[in-house]
Design brief:
There is one protein chain. By secondary structure, this protein is α/β, with parallel strands linked by helices. It is built from 16 helices and 22 strands.
């Protein structure tokens, strides 16, 4: 029976409480333990998540390993059709999923959560259509030998997802892995386990049992055992640099491939000839202010030519000041909350650090006045000017609504500032000069570079970084072929 959308997110959160999804069924953790899931806008408990551990991992991986064999035997196009159908079914749940992710993440429904739910569905449709590209090559090795290659699934994939964009970042791991013939065990983020669980539950309408499973739990007790399990043959992780290193080390012990999408401190270069209004809109969107800056690609280092600097800062302040902060489920809200109290304290501490380092603070928008939101983790967006490029706020990833604006004189100076970072995920340049644009795209040290726009992750745009921002690409045909299959060489001697 099809699952009908439930538009009351509080009711849906209660219905999903205390469950993993293993072998197509919602089940309690082996220990029987749960942990609370909070609404960051109110600080109140909205449900519980199953507290997974090594026992749950063992069961889920065992189920996935068994299911993967039959799944891999299905024709690739048949797998693709089923994954694409999952996307179409998920599209009918866009409003439901948007409301649930707004409730548990604090992201505004209109500006963020509903959009994420729709792109999630599109990602499954996109990858479903790529199934026919799982093909090999013929090799002219010897005329008396038929030599060819095939693409084979790796087996069981462990997918560990973050809390900032959990649905989309789950989709760019799960969809290509499934189409390529793998089974998947997802480990959801502690703060946002419910919407991801709902997505996997909905997909059970279409997929064979066991090919997609999801566990909730904490990193050391659930994520760690998943990475270390002997039958997990590939790990795809999105999260912090520190945790990424831990995942990489554990996977290295087994010599299995890993995809890592980690942090960012992305530069935005605004040249003297840039369209000012477009650049301002690009800064507001690129800094992800409507997501409270909780984005790896956030343009948190904005480099503006001295001729435009003052006008740019004034207009940017006006634009951000006009954004409304409030209840994430309110259609009038532009900006929601920070994910949790720990992250709230971290962001506030960086704002204090920025002031102590001598930067000029512009604290913008306004905190909500509704008493029901008094305990919410709301942080006013901050723009720092007069920032020392070596200051901590200029170099460390804050993962909050804090942007630094710098003034530069020459293009060469801007490029040097932009590349002077341990990170290399994303970068943008704003100019009307073609030579400047092409030079910047060539010399900027980042894996995802845009000119005169600042798009988020989209289907068919190869996405991933260099330096401390990670390893590998996602969201593209390349990611499906290179990260979720291995190439087998076959030689037939015809003599």
């Amino acid at each position: 029976m099809p699952i009908d959308p439930i538009l009351d997110p509080s009711s849906l959160a209660r219905e999903l409480s205390g469950r993993h999804l293993i072998n197509g069924e919602l089940v309690a953790s082996q220990s029987g333990k749960n942990f609370d899931v909070l609404n960051p806008a109110t600080g109140k408990v909205i449900g519980q998540a199953a507290d997974g551990d090594v026992q749950d991992v063992a069961i889920a991986v065992g189920v996935a390993k068994k299911a993967q064999k039959d799944w891999a035997e299905r024709p690739a196009r048949e797998r693709g059709k089923l994954v694409a159908e999952c996307g179409r079914v998920l599209m009918s749940h866009t409003e439901e999923l948007g409301r649930l992710i707004a409730l548990e993440s604090g992201k505004a429904l209109r500006t963020e959560s509903r959009v994420e739910a729709s792109v999630l569905a599109d990602m499954f449709v996109f990858f479903g259509g790529l199934a026919s590209e799982l093909k090999g090559e013929t090799v002219p090795f010897n005329p008396n030998m038929m030599t060819l290659t095939t693409r084979e699934p790796v087996g069981v994939v462990g997918a560990i997802i973050p809390w900032n964009v959990p649905l989309l970042l789950m989709a760019i791991k799960v969809a290509p892995a499934l189409v390529a013939g793998n089974a998947v065990v997802v480990k959801s983020a502690e703060d946002t386990p419910l919407a991801a669980l709902r997505v996997c539950q909905i997909m059970q309408e279409t997929l064979p049992k066991g090919v997609l499973n999801i566990l909730s739990g904490f990193g050391p007790s659930c994520g760690g055992p998943l990475v270390e399990h002997k039958d997990v043959k590939k790990v795809s992780f999105t999260g912090s640099v520190e945790t990424g290193r831990t995942v990489y080390k554990a996977a290295a012990e087994k010599l299995i491939p890993v995809t890592l999408e980690l942090g960012g401190k992305s530069p935005m270069i605004v040249m003297h000839d840039a369209d000012l209004d477009k650049a301002i809109a690009g800064a507001v969107g690129g800094m992800r202010f409507t997501r409270q800056g909780q984005s790896c690609t956030a343009s948190s280092r904005i480099l503006v030519h001295e001729k435009l600097h003052d006008a740019f800062v004034k207009k940017l302040i006006d634009k951000v000041n006009a954004l409304k902060m409030g209840d994430p489920l309110d259609e009038e809200t532009d900006i929601g909350t920070i994910i949790n109290r720990k992250q709230f304290d971290k962001v506030r501490s960086y704002i204090d650090i920025g002031e102590k380092e001598g930067a000029t603070k512009h604290e913008l928008s306004a905190l909500p006045t509704d008493s029901a939101l008094a305990d919410g983790t709301f942080v006013r967006p901050v723009i720092f000017t007069n920032v020392d490029p070596n200051a901590r706020v200029a170099r460390e990833e804050i993962f909050g609504p804090v942007a630094c604006v710098f003034k530069f004189k020459t293009f060469e100076e801007a490029l040097e500032l932009a590349n002077d970072s341990d990170f290399g995920l994303a970068a943008t340049v704003w100019t009307t000069d073609l030579k400047t644009a092409l030079t910047a795209t060539k010399r900027l040290e980042a894996g995802f570079v845009q000119v005169n726009q600042n798009l988020v992750v989209q289907p068919n745009l190869s996405y991933g970084g260099i330096k401390l921002s990670g390893l590998g690409k996602e969201a593209s045909l390349e990611s499906m072929l290179e990260h979720f299959t291995y190439k087998k060489t076959i030689i037939l001697n015809m003599e």
